[in-house]
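User: Here's a protein and a ligand (magnesium ion). What would the complex look like?
Assistant: Let me lay out the input and then the predicted complex.
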Amino acid sequence: MGCAEKDVADAVRAAAGVVRRHRDELVNLDRPIGDADHGENLGRGFAAVVAALDAGVPSSPGGVLEVVAKTLISTVGGAAGPLYGTGFLRAARAVGAAEELDAATVAAALRAALDGVVARGGAQLGDKTVVDALAPAVAAAESAAGGGADVAGVLRAAADAAAEGAESTVPLVARKGRASYLGERSAGHLDPGARSASLLLRAFADHAAGSAG
Amino acid sequence: MGCAEKDVADAVRAAAGVVRRHRDELVNLDRPIGDADHGENLGRGFAAVVAALDAGVPSSPGGVLEVVAKTLISTVGGAAGPLYGTGFLRAARAVGAAEELDAATVAAALRAALDGVVARGGAQLGDKTVVDALAPAVAAAESAAGGGADVAGVLRAAADAAAEGAESTVPLVARKGRASYLGERSAGHLDPGARSASLLLRAFADHAAGSAG
Amino acid sequence: MKKIINDPGTVVLDALRGMALAHPDLLRVREDPAVIVRAEAPVPRKVAIVSGGGSGHEPLHGGFVGHGMLDAACPGAVFTSPTPDQVAAAVSLTDGGVGTLLIVKNYTGDVLNFETAAELAAADGVEVRTVVIGDDVAVRDSLHTAGRRGVGGTVLLEKIVGAAAERGASLETCEELAHRVLDRVRSMGLALTSCTVPHVGEPTFALGEDEMEVGIGIHGEPGRRRVPVGTADDAVRHLLDPILEDMPLGEGDRVLLFTNSTGGTPLIELYVAHGVAERLLAERGVRVERRLVGPYVTSLEMQGMSLTLLKLDDELVELWDAPVSTAALRWGI
Amino acid sequence: MKKIINDPGTVVLDALRGMALAHPDLLRVREDPAVIVRAEAPVPRKVAIVSGGGSGHEPLHGGFVGHGMLDAACPGAVFTSPTPDQVAAAVSLTDGGVGTLLIVKNYTGDVLNFETAAELAAADGVEVRTVVIGDDVAVRDSLHTAGRRGVGGTVLLEKIVGAAAERGASLETCEELAHRVLDRVRSMGLALTSCTVPHVGEPTFALGEDEMEVGIGIHGEPGRRRVPVGTADDAVRHLLDPILEDMPLGEGDRVLLFTNSTGGTPLIELYVAHGVAERLLAERGVRVERRLVGPYVTSLEMQGMSLTLLKLDDELVELWDAPVSTAALRWGI
Ligand SMILES: Nc1ncnc2c1ncn2[C@@H]1O[C@H](COP(=O)(O)OP(=O)(O)O)[C@@H](O)[C@H]1O
Ligand SMILES: Nc1ncnc2c1ncn2[C@@H]1O[C@H](COP(=O)(O)OP(=O)(O)O)[C@@H](O)[C@H]1O
Ligand SMILES: [Mg+2]
Ligand SMILES: [Mg+2]
Ligand SMILES: [Mg+2]
Ligand SMILES: [Mg+2]
């Protein structure tokens, strides 16, 4: 499979569809331990991303990721906007001017995204945030790439690890973001951001698998 | 039976008890076609009347009625305050300095009260107001007194007629007071003021019957 | 019933005490009988403007006591007109020697109690005039009924007549001005939810999850009809159409548009509705020259809104713009 | 969901348009990105004061744009912090050449978005300082968590710093003053009912008929605990005690007491609560010298209240009293 700008753009469109279909789920996850807007925020952002891509797909995978980043930053707001925005921006920079993404580049982009999210938000593993999905996803992606997996394989490994990482947030007491105000009462709930991170990675993986198949 | 100031004061206290017990009923009658306060208003007023009488019973029946009037005027507010206040004030004047009330004086006092209510509020029979209870009550009282009934008999006749008069308001479309804003939608409801007038007359009649027996 | 109160029996008095503490520069509160009085009352040689009505409509009327508006307000029990004693006390506490104008909303109770008070005041030698406000187009005007209710127009009338009195207008002038405002002001309201009167403890009326009551009274009295909750455009049309039917306005007419929350409707919705109303008026060529947007005539926590339109002329604009310093309206000072 | 809106997707923009129409003398609205700007901005050689946050808290912040307070406010989606573009636009529209102070409530989203904006503005050559407000004692303060939320103290800080900027204070002075206010201001809130976010359509949380949530956040975030609804005295103690535990006050201390409605609680109840709070403070010898009572930091139609205490000194009193002319606060002008 190729992974040129068009493929990346298609993967992003697929992710936007997933966000749209999971909007209410993400809103409802954000209700007991937040402010009931995570699905609305990402929905608004990814709708704008699709509109931006409809207006014209940039000429490189990194260019696509940069459009995603800037659009999310300027339309999402909340905690998710700057965090996902920074993540995509760092991924874009990691990818640079490459015309196609290979497995190693995808793993490097994920690592850069995670570093960006941590740099911006200051969360550590176990704080009950997106980081709890992203960090294991990056580790799994790197080891898959190291083991010779292709792009679809790297993304599948990342998505699997992210899903597990997201689930791991349920018993945690939040130490960052809005859920942290609840203290002990935040335990027993899935973190909406970890869930959305896992959904996005699954969407990318499914798209890569589909293109590959 | 005598009907001196103490008897009138006791009758008023009895009426206050009836108002208290029917507070919620009168509030609820005032809910669909008014503003849900008639029982609260009269309850507040008659509680103040009892307090005034506790502080000292005037030396004539007319004096008692005047205290009732002034206390209702200064504590009830709403439509009921000035209307009942004026009614009791006119009754007090009709009774004058008499030391005891006889059947004819009671009938005359009721007539004066009705005239006062009509002068103040401008309602006619059939407008769905207190007048629909009071007017038949006065007619019945006058004919009972003319037929030789005693005070208890006059009041019983008045109370019976008032009860029927109050019931007659159910199908009426209100033309005075707050219920008139509803137009046709006011039909099908008992008028709270007519109901309270009938309750007061029944309390007086019961008290007179009890003292007589 | 969920309310931040200590006792339904003392809620009005407790609120008055809190109000006195909150606004020591503007007003004083007399407790028995209850009256809210402008801090510097009586103002010598100024016509006193006195209003009042049931409590539960805050900031009406106590929030409008102060320079350029009311000299006193008489707060009755919740949704119950004040007693004559209160009004008489207000008149005597604010008498500046040149007469008093009583501003009364047209409800049987208010009219009768103020009437009695006016008789008492006249007996005390104060020259008293009374103006009765009936601006609610939801109620059909008729001599055979209680007539139109006084609602949102009250605020505008109190502001404008208060400004004239502050400038030294005579009692006659104030009275004439009040009637001029009355001729030119119309209102209508709607409710999305009921309110709960503290001494009742349950909602005054029940509305279905998708219903609203159009033509609602400010005490939760039922309105003209129930309709499904629609868009903000629908809601505004339900209010504006009957107003404009009653008081036709068109190309070049100048108005003050007052978009009022009945309490529970938040400002974000009120601004949405206000924007719709301005747009619909602009489409007819009506020029909105002044506005008031906020919760000024409320019915406790009721969700809903009302619109009031006042046809302006230069004099009314000038009086509206004149300085006012009260708890709820303040500008130019 | 019963709301007077046209579309949950456009409610913020529709409200902004209504707001612009309602206050043409005070402010202008830019739509894309959305910014509410003081009518006379940029004011040359005045430090610009810019704030913002999620919508649904009206009049916060747009209602405080005007002379003596904010130069611009950035309204996010309902309960969602604004984007960096909005803040950057606000900074460039209000830059008077002597720097900009960004006032940010401490929520992860607000902090991150304003941070990005500050980087953009600095790149544009505007000197920008940021002050982050965390005055909510319901949240335990800790370096390991998101820290205290910014709530009612925001209004007082915006007023006081706005007054200093209006008088020509430098960016450093404004920043120092903001930190001085922060050191001396504490808040806590409670809710009797939930609010309903338009894009959600259902209440954010469920409370039993006799329960209230103490320590509620202004976005309906759960608080410290649920307790039975009691008297107004109980409610006020639930708020005042933790504030005074965090910031002890006693004999002779001078304070501003801000009694705030979260939206659905009517003024009559708010005045009851305010009276209680003044009484409890007086019992401790604390001198309430200034007050603010009303719905200023709301959570849509949520019923509830918050208390904010600011420890005063002569300078803060003077800045509080300084003229202000905004949609929601206006005096002396
Ligand atoms: N400091 C942080 N670092 C990483 N992720 C964070 C941080 N704070 C919040 N989050 C993530 O953001 C999610 C909430 O996003 P969203 O609801 O869109 O924003 P907001 O909390 O401003 O309403 C949380 O579920 C969490 O995963
Ligand atoms: N003009 C009137 N004449 C006679 N009775 C009237 C008139 N207006 C109202 N009423 C009576 O007053 C009753 C309502 O009293 P109340 O509820 O205490 O006052 P309000 O209507 O001011 O709330 C009505 O049920 C009616 O019987
Ligand atoms: Mg959220
Ligand atoms: Mg009534
Ligand atoms: Mg009443
Ligand atoms: Mg949010």
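Summary: Chain D touches chain A through 36 residues (CB under 8 Å).
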